[in-house]
TrEMBL record:
Record-linked InterPro entries: Di-haem_cyt_TM, Mopterin_OxRdtase_euk, OxRdtase_Mopterin-bd_dom, OxRdtase_Mopterin-bd_sf
Designated name of the protein: Oxidoreductase, molybdopterin binding
Gene Ontology CC annotation, any one: membrane
Key words, A-Z: Membrane, Transmembrane, Transmembrane helix
GO biological process: respiratory electron transport chain
Record flagged with keyword Protein transport: no
Native organism: Mycolicibacterium smegmatis (strain ATCC 700084 / mc(2)155)
Length: 369
């Protein structure tokens, strides 16, 4: 049962999961760190919800797959000669890199969606860099083992029936097909138990999902106002939202923002941890707000939070999102004034953007020259 027939079939499924995880992870990275060549549309509004949901779901599905794959090859790792010649040492080293990179990616990814940062390094940078190591190791492994993989995929799953060799009267129990069925079942259970944070229909049965969809006003909270250190400034009577375009600047009180034409859109908010939820957001259209200072909606815009300087206290919104009619400076959520933990007095909400870039507790909006 630990033969290549099992290893190759599980490895094929693992390769698909890794490919999906890698591609969707790159999409998320380039949305957060855009390059001149990268394009990310504003429609459909659920697109980031789909790609990042697939990223986390495929990563979780890969966990039972890599466990079974390691189980199937474990004895071969200790075959003699343990050291061997240069070619064997090189193969062993490549396998070590592959296994180490995969375990690092999956374990830190799980810790991230649970927001348990027991490590001291910055997750985003390390996870992104190691993704290339893991992907490269997978490609090298496939290239080296391709003849073996082709031969193994052609092996039948059925094993000869009868007694086990050397053990008269003892019939065979588990079969290769049973092992594979158990693997697919484990993948299905792991997926269903966690995918509810992305797929609303599974929310009640996803008992291991880090985010249940519950929170103030029916939306989960990743970073609270207390954690962000904005309790006093967000509640201050002197609060103003400043909008600037070069030398032209205008300060808006909360009442000024409420007096502007208000629109409501139902948009999903989706976070890099994989959770997402639909909500009704009400506020002023960003393009209308920029028009009050004579700014063109065809420029990138910098969003600055009341939060002290940090990795996401300042974000840049691309022009295609700036001019989208569904990009709002939101004042209300699901029919109620924004909860403090959701960005009161106002926040950005734009279609197909990661939640970490939907800046909360806005204090300043600047047109990028």
């Amino acid at each position: 049962m630990r033969g290549t027939a099992i290893t190759a079939r599980v490895g094929l499924a693992l390769g698909v999961a890794v490919a999906v995880c890698f591609v969707t992870g790159l999409i998320s990275h380039f949305i957060q760190h855009p390059q001149p060549w990268f394009f990310w549309p504003t429609r459909p509004v659920w697109l980031y919800r789909l790609t990042q949901g697939l990223h986390v779901i495929s990563g979780i599905a890969a966990i039972p797959l890599i466990v079974v794959k390691l189980w199937s090859v474990w004895p071969k790792l200790f075959e003699r000669p343990v050291i061997g010649g240069f070619v064997r040492q090189l193969e062993r080293a490549s396998i070590l890199v592959l296994v180490g990179a995969m375990l690092f990616q999956l374990s830190t990814g799980i810790m991230n969606i649970a927001q348990w940062y027991a490590f001291e390094f910055f997750f985003t940078t390390s996870h992104y860099a190691m993704a290339y190591v893991a992907a490269g190791a997978v490609l090298v492994h496939i290239a080296v083992k391709l003849p073996v993989i082709r031969r193994a995929l052609g092996e039948p799953l059925e094993q000869p029936s009868g007694e086990l060799p050397g053990v008269p009267g003892l019939s065979r129990g588990l079969t290769r097909r049973t092992v594979l069925r158990g693997t697919w079942l484990a993948v299905a259970v792991a997926t269903v138990a966690t995918a509810g944070q992305t797929v609303p229909l599974l929310r009640k049965v996803s008992v291991l999902a880090p985010r249940t969809g519950q929170g103030p006003q029916g939306v989960p909270v990743n970073r609270s106002a207390i954690a962000a250190g904005v309790l006093r400034t967000a509640r201050s009577p002197q609060y103003r939202l400043t909008v600037t375009d070069g030398a032209v600047s205008r300060a808006f009180t909360l009442e000024d923002l409420q007096a502007m034409p208000q629109v409501t859109h139902r948009l999903p908010i989706a976070c890099v941890e994989g959770w997402s939820v639909d909500a009704e957001w009400t506020g002023a259209v960003l393009a209308d707000l920029l028009a009050t200072v004579g700014a063109s909606p065809d420029s990138d815009v910098r969003m600055i939070s009341l939060e002290p300087p940090g990795p996401y206290s300042r974000t840049t919104l691309p022009a295609r999102h700036v001019r989208d009619s569904q990009t709002l400076i939101a004042l209300r959520l699901n029919g109620e004034a924004l909860d403090l933990d959701h960005g009161y007095p106002c926040r950005l909400i734009a279609p197909t953007r990661p939640g970490v870039l939907q800046t909360k507790w806005l204090s300043r909006i600047e047109v990028v020259p």
